[in-house]
Amino acid sequence: MTANQCAQFQALLARRAQGEPIAYLTGRKEFWSLELQVTENTLIPRPETELLVEQAYARLPFDGKALVIDLGTGSGAIALAIAAECPQCRVLATDKSTAALKKVAQANAQCLGLHQVAFLLSDWWALGEIKATLVVSNPPYAAANAPHLSQGDVQYEPRSALVAGVDGLADIRQLIAQSVFHLVADGWLLLEHGYLQAEGVQALFEQYGCEDLQ
Ligand SMILES: C[S@@+](CC[C@H](N)C(=O)[O-])C[C@H]1O[C@@H](n2cnc3c(N)ncnc32)[C@H](O)[C@@H]1O
Q1: Is 79 a pocket residue for ligand 1 (Cβ < 6 Å)?
Q2: E-assigned strands of the chain?
């Protein structure tokens, strides 16, 4: 290494020693075999979120008319993975963070040549009259006082991508409550939630008249 490279490496090493996630040091993270750019304004996509992509793919009709919406797209991970798997689908990716949507998710779509993905800066369902075949979301679902927020990689990630009110269900509640207005008949809402939230999330789906809960 040159002296300059060595200095850069040492600086990265020092940041890593402080606990900064590797993905923020390299600016990259693999998701669904896609190489994605990430920044400190986006969640670092998790392998477990690939399950949402699998579940979405399994429910998509192949007639070329499906509209899939990814609410809270962050780096674009879910939307871009679905678009890569299902080129005939139209995909709309939204986020309320300009820094995530415009600087990262859109740039990732461009780099990957996934031009069928549209992007919209929006607060959850502020989408107008749109109805989708399938809505998918990995929303914030940590409780405000969750101890892991100050641990590991998570402490470096944006709070706005993680925390959802006192019980962690504030955003999921909103997503479920208004889904009926944005889904076609027999449409699906697929959500990631915390490992202790299954009962609470199921109760919300039931409260708002959703069927075929899985
Ligand atoms: C847990 S991150 C998920 C990011 C990405 N979908 C993934 O799985 O890696 C949640 C995302 O929701 C976005 N978000 C939070 N509140 C929102 C809101 N009210 N409307 C739209 N997006 C929101 C955050 O900016 C963040 O990008």
Answers
A1: no
A2: 28-31, 34-37, 67-71, 90-95, 117-121, 132-137, 183-191
Question: Helix (H, G, I), strand (E, B), or coil: what is residue 31?
Answer: strand
pLDDT of 62 over the 80 cut: no
- What is the separation of C-alpha 120 from the centre of its chain, rounded to a whole number of angstroms? 14
CA–CA gap between residue 87 and residue 59 (Å, rounded): 15
133: three-class secondary structure by DSSP:
strand
User: Which residue, by CA, sits nearest to atom 13 of ligand 1?
Assistant: 72
pLDDT 10s digits, 162-183: 999 999 999 999 999 999 999 9
Question: Can you list the domains of the chain with their CATH numbers?
Answer: 3-207 (3.40.50.150)
- Whether 28 and 38 have beta carbons less than 8 Å apart is answered as yes
Q: Say yes or no: CB of residue 108 within 6 Å of ligand 1.
A: no
Contacts of 191 by beta carbon, 8 Å cutoff, 6+ apart: 136, 137, 138, 139, 172, 175, 176, 201
pTM, 2 dp: 0.97
Average pLDDT over residues 126-145: 96
Reply yes or no on whether the pLDDT at 130 is more than 80: yes
